[in-house]
Amino acid sequence: MKCLECEGEIPIPEDVIKGEIVTCPDCGVSFEVHKISKDSFELRPAQVEGEDWGE
Amino acid sequence: MLYDVVRTEEKMLAKAADRKNIDLNMICSKDLYLDLHKDYQEKFGDIVLQRCVSYFRSIHITAFLESKGVKVVNGLHEAFTAGNKLNSTLKMVNAGIPVPKTYLAFTQESSLKALEELGYPAVLKPTMGSWGRLIALMNDSESAESILEDREHMFPIYQNYYIQEKVKRPPRDIRAFVIGDKVVAAIYRISAEGVWKTNTARGGKAENYPVTNELEDLCLRAATAMGEGLFGVDLMESPDGLLVHEVNNTIEFRNTVPITGVDIPSLMLDYLIDLKH
After folding, report:
1. According to the model, what pLDDT value does residue B118 have?
2. Considering only CB atoms, which chain B residues are within 8 Å of A50?
3. Distance between CA B59 and CA B128 in Å, rounded?
4. B146 and B176 share a domain?
5. Helices of type H across B160-232
6. What is the nearest CA distance from A43 to chain B, expressed in angstroms?
């Protein structure tokens, strides 16, 4: 999958789950796997930390 | 399992469910829309593991599901209590659990008076929040004034001033994991170089901490003060013994599992299966 930022190659795990965060090994930008049908998905820029995020 | 984002923890839980042949339905909160007039027990199954990383979203969904008769872990009572430092500290004070000396104030002026009584250095924490976010060290009245002034310009929730003594402790604290009525693992969280906070989210390093009787007793009392479920109890080693400074509601365990060898996600699922029966 091509990185939306630098067009580097982002490896997508075989067992990817919708909502999973993947990171570009080239530029370090994180993306959220947004939509998964059988063989397709798309990436959207990930929200890194919301104001009410945590444990 | 209800989630916002699939982090390492959610993947570990999904894999543990696979190994145990548990029918785990992953529900992304972002896809949800809920009809207040409908029944949802069938859609959400026997039990919901609440893993949303957004606190406000999680308590809204939990409130909704509980009102529909769906069992959620952690429940709304536990999420309200552990998710708010004032609520959780008050429960622990009332239960006689040793906690750092803490004040609550609502203005800059009254906070400075509280700080005069408490003494410096002290720590200002948001009542809601996590990962060490917006926790400020106040070394003296000048730094306190500046920090409080900043807060006066922030969203009103940050003007509930939860002020706590800065406990004299080694550059580490202890995180213990409570699953039901058991303390299953504990780690030291050691501050990163040049950082006073110990949160692993802020670069703190984890080391195994063998669970002692004292730790177990304190953690179970702290967890009971919150209700029942899954908790991460944070403790500090003060000169007078262990103090509980926080109880967490949606535990993160990615660093703990490899260091302690304890399969926390499997134990969490076992707990949920036991609850179901």
Report:
1. 98
2. 53-54
3. 12
4. no
5. 213-226
6. 13
pLDDT(A51) > 80: yes
pLDDT, position B239: 97
Retrieve residue B83's tokens: 């998710």
For residue A34, name the pLDDT band (cuts at 50, 70, 90): confident
**Any idea what the CATH number is for the domain that residue B234 is in?**
3.30.470.20
Residues in chain B with CB shorter than 8 Å from the CB of A53 are: 53-55, 130-131
Query: Per-domain residue ranges for chain A?
Result: 1-47
Residue B180 corresponds to which tokens in the numbers above? 């039901």
CATH for A1-47? Answer: 2.20.28
Segments forming the whole domain that contains residue B157: 102-165
Counted domains in chain B: 3
Q: Are residues B178 and B250 in the same domain?
A: yes
Please tell me the number of Cα atoms within 13 Å of B12 on its side-chain side.
19
Kindly state whether residue B22 falls inside one of the protein's structural domains.
Answer: yes
Are the CB atoms for B172 and B191 separated by under 8 Å? yes
CA–CA dist B24, B39 (Å, integer): 20
Q: Which residues of B touch A47 (CB under 8 A)?
A: 5
Tokens (6 digits) for B132: 């060490």
For residue B199, what pLDDT is reported?
Answer: 81
The pair of structure tokens assigned to B201 is 């989210």
